[in-house]
Amino acid sequence: MINLIRNENMKIYKRKRNWILIGIVVLFTLIQFVNLRSTGSVPAQEDWRSQLEQEIAFLKLEMNEPDALPVELKQAQKSILLNQYHLDTDLPPSTNTWSFAVDQAGNLMVAVSFISVIIAGEIVAAEFIGGTIKLLLTRSASRTKIYISKYMACLLFGLALLSIGAVISVVLGGVVLGFQGLGSSYLYVQNGVVEQTTIIQALFEAYLLQIPFLLLTVTLAFMISAAFKSSTFSIVISLLVAVAGFVIATAMNGWGWTKYFVFSHTNLTQYVLGDPSVTGMSFGFSAVFILLHLLIMHLVSYPAFVKRDVV
Amino acid sequence: MTVLQIDQLSKKIGRKTIVDGLTLTLNKGEILGLLGPNGAGKTTTIRMIVGLMSRTAGRIIINGVDTKTDHAKAMNSIGVIVENPDLYKYLSGYDNLVHFARMSQGVTKQRIKEIIALVGLEHSIHDKVGTYSLGMRQRLGLGIALIHKPSLLLLDEPTNGLDPAGIRELRAHLIHLARQEEVGIMISSHLMSEMEMMCDRVAVLQQGKLIGIRDLSAMAQTDELQVRFEVDRPEAAVQLLQTLTAGLEILRDNDHIVLRIAKTKIPELTQKLMAAGIQIYGVHTLKPSLEDTFLEMTEGDKAR
Predict the structure, then answer these.
(1) Which of A14, A263, B47, B304 has the fewest CB atoms within 10 Å, i.e. is most exposed?
(2) E-strand spans in chain B?
(3) Which chain regions cross the lipid bilayer (chain A) (predicted)?
């Protein structure tokens, strides 16, 4: 089994094109820094108090608009509470490397997922298209083992890419903003109250608890690849679903029906660093709901892959 | 010793029967050809043996192991070349070998070296397979099929697209493997002259059914052959031959005389002709080609 996964890894990493894909994620992380520098979101100036007060007034105005979406109300409320907290405790808000890396996790996860989808969409289909499937399946390894090793290789690729992005975020953040602040705390709003946790804990939570998004999109691409032998179909559909899912889950955040929309569950940080998108959702419910989706996808692709006649 | 035993193998897709109750055995060190027109079920048969296609009925036993009960063990002793040598083009030849070596137990680095030398790819083994010629890819494909020292080799149309030199090289490899290493080889091809040159036996398939097995070595030795003599005095030669062969049909065409005799009689007849002072410029055996046999068998089947 380990040898099979090594084979899959070899086929991924010895291909020049895939290094371009990895390069795109690196580039994406770098662009986030350009963003940070140009917007200069570090208002540690003398007048930070008046700035925050202005912001609160503006947000309150926005909330009174009749066509405000639930997600806008939520965000505004959250920002007001955080700003008020800074005013009350007389601590100026500041961005350091670590809190920046925490806030990066969501964006990075989406970028990593998009790239991983390309790998997962090809990993089975390319063997059929190239004809190599005939060699692969006429060895002593069972089809089940081949299937599992390919799926594992996709997930490992996604996780590796995520780690690369996270490390670059921290290292580059350190170069730009300095490495201080590791002992600081991370502020978040839960149940209408500002809470805090250590920055290290927030960092781990942000990166680990958003992995379900990666898991779901990669599995979708893998399913289409294994069941329908088409990499184009697989990559296009998976990217569309990933984009639509992400956008809908973000925009429709708070709407009741999204309780049964899987992309509203893929960010599990909502249970530890905030409030669930729909009141009444629990961590357990989300976990089961995601696992159910993964299971159904494998129930489609696994039998198709194992039973297919290779012509 | 039997390396492959196929018993009542059938494949149906929908209402169509692709392979119909095929029973065959292949011995150690033997080269068996599968011959038949397109759609006869050759490829399907090979794909069922190697597990690329499921079967509707029947048993396949490789070295005493049923492929259904212990797929992994059965597959470990077979090497496969299915049609074109499709390999990972973006990997080097060496990485391709490593890839498949990892999929079998006990393949050492030393073995990989041996294989590279065997197929003669020492100079280009670290180049990307995408840069290889078809002949080189075919050689690498053979190397991959042999890397785990299989005792049974299955080849489906391996000569497709190869140039004459490539075909010749492959044939030499296969004959060497069968004779020296006692590998059992099953090969499907539509090139009958090819089959004739390397197969010990040929199984003829038609519409999924086995319609006959021909022992080619026997065909060449015991059957009567058409023999053509080229002489300076045909009339005298015909007269002499008529008395010698007692009323056998003798055809004459200018300086050529054609008659049907056993191969073993050729030396005797030439000696007698020479003794009678007839100059012989040439003796040719016109053996019934596999093509004739094949047509005979398939036509005969249609007539029934």
Answers:
(1) B304
(2) 2-13, 16-27, 31-35, 57-62, 65-66, 78-82, 152-156, 184-188, 201-206, 209-215, 224-231, 250-253, 256-262, 280-286
(3) 20-38, 108-130, 151-179, 199-223, 235-258, 278-300
Q: Is B260 left (phi over 0), alpha (psi -120 to 50) or beta?
A: beta
Cα separation of the two ends of chain B: 36
Alpha-carbon gap, residue B129 to B172, rounded angstroms: 23
Give pLDDT tens digits for B282-294. Answer: 888 776 666 676 7
Q: Which distant-in-sequence residues (6+ apart) come within 8 Å of B198 by Cβ?
A: B31, B33, B171, B174, B175, B187
Choosing among B77, B86, B157, which should be mutated to test the A contact, i.e. which has the most A CBs within 10 A?
Answer: B86
Q: How far is CA B58 from the centre of its chain?
A: 24
Full-model pTM:
0.84
CA–CA separation, B67 and B77 (whole Å): 11
Q: Which residue of A has its CA nearest to B50?
A: A138
What is the phi/psi pair of residue A37, to 5°? -70, -40
Q: What is the token pair recorded at B163? A: 């140039």
Taking CA–CA distances from A135, the nearest residue in chain B reads B80
Q: Please list, in sequence order, all residues whose beta carbon lies within 8 angstroms of the beta carbon of residue B110, skipping any fewer than 6 positions away.
A: none
Residue A155 corresponds to which tokens in the numbers above?
A: 């997930």
Q: Is the pLDDT of residue B9 over 80?
A: yes
Tell which CATH architecture fits domain B224-286: 2-Layer Sandwich (3.30)
Least Cα distance to B252 among B263, B262, B242 occurs for B242
All residues at 6 or more sequence positions from B77 whose CB lies less than 8 Å from its CB, including other chains: B3, B62, B63, B65, B150, B151, B152
**Hey, which residues 193-212 in chain A have their CB within 8 Å of chain B?**
none
Integer Cα distance of B24 and B187 in angstroms: 13
Q: Which among B52, B83, B89 has the least Cβ separation from residue A138? A: B52
In tens, the pLDDT along A66-90 reads: 777 778 888 888 888 888 888 888 7
For chain A, domain boundaries: 2-42+94-307
Sequence-distant (6+) residues with CB within 8 A of B22 are: B6, B8, B9, B10, B41, B45, B58, B205, B208, B209, B210
Q: Which of A3, A132, A311 sits opposite B102 (nearest CB)?
A: A3
Please tell me if residue A191 touches chain B, with a CB cutoff of 8 Å.
no
Task: Please name the member of B53, B91, B100 whose beta carbon is closest to the beta carbon of A310.
Answer: B53
Residues of B in contact with A135 (CB under 8 A): 80, 82, 86-87, 100, 144
List chain A residues with CB under 8 Å of B84.
Answer: 131
CB-CB contact of A155 with A120 (8 Å): no
| Domain range list for chain B | 2-219, 224-286
Residue to test with chain B: of A138, A143, A144, A306, most B Cβ within 10 A: A138
Q: Which residue of A has its CA nearest to B72?
A: A140
Tens digits of residue pLDDT in A266-283: 888 888 888 888 887 888
Q: Is B160 on the interface with A (CB under 8 A)?
A: no
CATH topology classification for B2-219 = Rossmann fold (3.40.50)
User: Encoding tokens for residue A263?
Assistant: 């992309």
Q: Inter-chain contact A14–B90, Cβ cutoff 8 Å?
A: yes
Nearest chain A residue to B55 by CA distance is A309
Question: What strand order describes the sheet that includes B78-82?
Answer: B78-82, B152-156, B184-188, B31-35, B201-206, B209-215
A147/B165 Cα distance (integer angstroms): 39
